[in-house]
Amino acid sequence: MEIVYVYTRKRSEFGRPCSFSDRPAKVNVDIPPDPSMASGFILRDPVDSYVQHTSDMSEHEVNTERVEVESRGVNHVEGGWPKDINPQEVEQTIRFRKKVEKDENYINTITHLGTLMEHCVKQNNAINIYEEYFEEEEMAEAEDEPPSAKTINVISKLTSFFNVLLSKRDPNVTKRTATHLSWHPDTRKKLAVAYSSLEFQKNMKDMSFDSYIWDLENPNKPELVLKPSSPLVTLEYNPKDSHVLVGGCYNGQMAYWDTRKGGLPVEVSTVEVSHRDPVYGAIWLQSKTGTECFSASTDGQVLWWDVRKLSEPTEALVLDITRKGLLENALGAVSLEFEPTMPTKFMVGTEQGIVIACNRKAKTPPEKITSTYSSHHGPVYALARNPFYPKIFLTVGDWTARIWSEEHKESAIMWTKYHLSYLTDGCWSTVRPAVFFTTRSDGTLDVWDFLFKQKDPSLSLKVCDEPLSSLRLQDNGCVVGCGSKLGTVTLLEISSGLCTLQRNEKTLANAMFERETKREKILEARHRELRLKERARSEGQDTEVEEKPAESPREVLNRTRREFFEVIEMELQRRAQAETQHLRGKVPGVGRTGNRSRDSLPRGRGRGSASAFQVKDRAGEEVAAAQREESQLPKDREEEEEEEKDAT
Amino acid sequence: AEVEETLKRIQAHKGVIATIVINAEGIPIRTTLDNSTTVQYAGLLHQLTMKARSTVRDIDPQNDLTFLRIRSKKHEIMVAPDKEYLLIVIQNPSE
């Protein structure tokens, strides 16, 4: 139904001024209700209606803008002087002061305050109210404290919520993994973090190449932004000169920064002579000039550089364990280890799970590789020597962490159990020889203290949900920083129980290492003996059966079981014969000998004794029955079999 | 003259390092320290005293601040506030 109102005007009257006038109201349209339309509706009866006697409340959400705080200094200038007095002019200020001093109010006030003040001053002089009693009794029993660690800082940015802990995250949109951390050698307040995306061919266009140096006092903004030409995989402070850093890039180049000179690298190595794969390890060397470093990469080379001249490496080594120096055979290096106390030796962990120990000062390149340790099923992500016992080193890879002794090349002396997630990084504690840290790909940080507990970590902390990719302990041993896959670096403070040297700890740890090494040596020697014996035996006999290089455990078990039972049977027979002679004189139907064991069939060597008794009964029974045909005993045997069936 | 005497007496006590008198605007009237330090103390302590006083009065409007003592590792700063003036004494407590 359309309601239309038509307004007409002559064309000649267009543009004429309008003159409005009042008019009484006039009904233009009147639409009466149409009862016939009521049939289109249903009468509602009853009608539910509710009333609530409360105030109406509505919910609103407000998202406040994140406030950026910045520390600034304030220059305090003298102020407060009345307008006519220039504070610089000594005369004017003196005059002003004198004027004030003449004021009566001033005199009264000062006298009054003076007495009050004197009272307090005298109080202070009379007795030291904050005296510290019992100062010597601070010998804390740190052993009783359960190990713990608390997060002191989380380095991130771009947070939508504000924690009590300040956040230190990667300020870019595309999250990159924090692949390497390096603490500032002197102040401990600065942390250099290398960010890069290590996923194969996942480099997005807008991913920035920067890496940052963070100052712990200011976790919102990095102190310095390092801008390499390609993302940094590893970054290290020079332990001698705290302004210099060296970084290994994703494209294989090496770059060197001086923090005094800003964020661009001072020098970058030339592409042709650098690595061809990301540089996974870069460490400074001990040298007189303090400018030497070396790097390792998955292209199989270890290169030595002098940072003053990064145009070509000073030395190169190909990680070929066949010692032929062929690049094709070389193993890719994933971690690098160097101990300043042993400047000629270093170790490289490879992608193939082998750890190569090398000697830098060897004459010919093949001799540089001194020994190899076949350690893990996958890449060796971390390699660290124990700072107290350099012969012992830790390797972290696949699902375990293993401890090795240099002398023993066949197997690790100690290892952790197989975890459910990959272990990504590890390092020893710098203050306690028996403590080391590992990070896992489920975001957990484990602290292992093997003088306390050997099977499990003594402390296991879930740091974040994403995998942790790197770990670095500060030199004081109390603060550890771990970097995650999304670029968050978390700093944790370890409880003092885990970072103070316990009594006898050094000797205990040493003893443990020696014991384990000895054990492995003995086991290995034994193994070798057995192998030699078997080989000699099989060579001596002309059997068609080839020498089994490795029997499966099942076969070993079966064989051992068989041999065991054979021995038992023989013994039983002998004893049964003696028994039957003894039993001839006894009343038949005497209770059984031996224990009734509820186990059914013998399973495993541990149950050997129980099964031996059962077997003995059975054998005894059979022999006795055969010899005497007692009705009692067969029944007993049936009973036993029934019971066995019940037990099964 | 009385003022002089009072201040001299306070200064003469054992352990007292400095005495400063500042007015309500934070201008040091009388001081035994050099100018820059005095100005620093004056500005900072003035603000702190105001804040402390307002805190006390917020909690109980009938109350008022009579004395403020700040003990730090090195020494103790004592502030005696008044409506118009502030008397500050820095003392090294008995050690």
UniProtKB/TrEMBL annotation, chain A:
GO terms for biological process: cilium movement; outer dynein arm assembly. It is found in: Cytoplasm, Cytoskeleton, Cilium axoneme. Transmembrane segments: none annotated. Signal peptide: none annotated. SMART domains: WD40. Residues 533-557, 576-648 are annotated as: Disordered. Residues 615-637 have a biased composition (Basic and acidic residues). One of its GO terms (molecular function) is dynein light chain binding. It comes from the Eukaryota. Residues 638-648 have a biased composition (Acidic residues). GO terms for cellular component: microtubule; outer dynein arm. Keywords: Cell projection, Cilium, Cytoplasm, Cytoskeleton, Dynein, Microtubule, Motor protein, Repeat, WD repeat. Belongs to the dynein intermediate chain family. This is DNAI2 protein.
UniProtKB/TrEMBL annotation, chain B:
Gene3D superfamilies: Dynein light chain 2a, cytoplasmic. Keywords: Cytoplasm, Cytoskeleton, Dynein, Microtubule, Motor protein, Transport. GO terms for biological process: microtubule-based movement. The keyword Cytoplasm applies. It is found in: Cytoplasm, Cytoskeleton. Pfam families: Robl_LC7. Residues 3-91 form the Roadblock/LAMTOR2 domain. GO terms for cellular component: cytoplasmic dynein complex; microtubule. Its main location: cytoplasm. InterPro entries: DYNLRB1/2, Roadblock/LAMTOR2_dom. Acts as one of several non-catalytic accessory components of the cytoplasmic dynein 1 complex that are thought to be involved in linking dynein to cargos and to adapter proteins that regulate dynein function. Cytoplasmic dynein 1 acts as a motor for the intracellular retrograde motility of vesicles and organelles along microtubules. Belongs to the GAMAD family. This is DLRB2 protein.
